[in-house]
Hints:
Layout: E1 3-14, E2 21-32, E3 36-40, H1 47-54, E4 62-67, E5 70-71, H2 77-87, E6 88-91, H3 103-113, H4 120-129, H5 145-157, E7 163-167, H6 175-192, E8 195-199, H7 203-208, E9 211-216, E10 219-224
Parallel strand pairs: 3-8, 3-9, 6-7, 7-8
Antiparallel strand pairs: 1-2, 1-4, 4-5, 9-10
Helix pairs in contact: 3-5
Amino acid sequence: MDTIIETVNLCRNYGTGSNLVQALKSVNIQIPAGSFTAIMGKSGSGKSTLLHLIGGLDRPSSGKVIVDGEDLYVLNQDKLADYRRRKIGLVFQSYNLIEELNAYDNIVFPILLDKKKPDRGYVEMLAEELGIKDRLSHLPHQLSGGQQQRVAIARALAHKPTVILADEPTGNLDQESGQEVLKLFLACHEKFGQTIVMVTHDPDIGALADQILNIEDGRIVGDAV
């Protein structure tokens, strides 16, 4: 299986001198195309930092992030934005919905930003699977926290990205809702061959992954398949 994501001696530092924090320390990983990889570790271990660097949301202090054969951090800001918008689906615990737009318009906004036509049937299918089809005309403040999270998940999946990056996507949901969301991720993974990289504390989710990357104090300490 081809490698779609690779990091080479990836380091990320914050602060200087006595305030220096080494969030990532020479991280080398390879993630196969079409796989489901779980990133696990304690809070503060560097999991989210790694996800942000793969997503083009932060810049490394040194090292490389190579996605689909392209070194992300030699790209200019416009090209990096294109990468995030076209190849990556991002799901974080903060929903980042636009308050003035209803749920449907929030979901398709990145597609319109890329001057493309949304696949309405696909968006409605996602919304139905996520249990928010009857909420598409609602503004974010009219939705519960769980419903806002589902809108954010639909937005991340709507453009059928090559890679889905998810940071504790079920963390704010009850167990039943979390299971439904996880099933949707796995269904997209199987149907469209998408690569999923998910930060999670949940060993049950880890058990479903093709690969587990364990991070401890900014270093990969082992993996299980």
